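Worked example 2:
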Amino acid sequence: MGKLLIVGTVAFDAIETPFGKTDKILGGAATFIGLAAAQFTLESAIVSVVGGDFPQAYLNLLKNKGIDISGIEIVKNGKTFFWKGKYRNDLNSRDTLITDLNVLADFNPKVPFNFKNADVLMLGNLHPKVQLSVIAQMETKPKLIVLDTMNFWMDNTLPELKEVIRLTDVITINDEEARQLTKEYSLVKAAQKIHAMGPKYVVIKKGEHGALLFHKDEVFFAPALPLEEVFDPTGAGDTFAGGFVGYLAETENISFNNLRNAVIHGSNLASFCVEKFGTERMEELSKAEVENRLDQFKQLTQFDIELQ
């Protein structure tokens, strides 16, 4: 059983899709990562910051899932990070309506003492300076540092982001971000350029079209499970990352073959996340449901063929 340290946002989201809309609900990258990783047998902790307006019930939810929340700072007279977005009909594109950084603007992360030796460090989508600060606080180098980032940081903090990438073992980004970062349209060429920046492994997420894992000259592809209904894609990428790192922390095996399994576990959990708004589906998810859907993934991807 390994130790997983998660750094990222714990936040409020307000979401509108063609299927409905919500008021402020629980969201944030670290929240989705933590809830997904909680499906595995491991020790985990979240480093984040919230305001005095953040409900104790949400903190209790994370704690009851076995997540150490001692690294979540509460700024009593501050307001929690808030994001509001509206998805278009295809659910692949969205418009950001509101982004209020609030307490996140001055966030100075503090790693809990007993997680300074974490086996896996998951750097959720945040300012690269925050991510660098957390890496610097680790007493022993994690066996695996996994980075998730986005185009906003590529546009505004590229030098700092490249420094984080240099220190990273695995990067997870979507296809659009991979192309922006490398100026390459081909994802194979993009992965090669990202390898040269530092990471041994590159995971490129393609939403409803699955995910690609690159390592040197090896490539692995995991499809996304075809679903009857998708209500809300918010947090699906973070849920994928949580399943990915959660499986790796539980198995304590960072070989390429095991990373392939981790991609499948990430894709599996992400398929649940999109079935309801926000974190609702991940909060109620059972082990039996996870195992059953893993079997569906196996049926989807296995075949027998005779090669001459």
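The chain has a mean pLDDT of 94. DSSP finds eleven helices and 14 strands in the chain.
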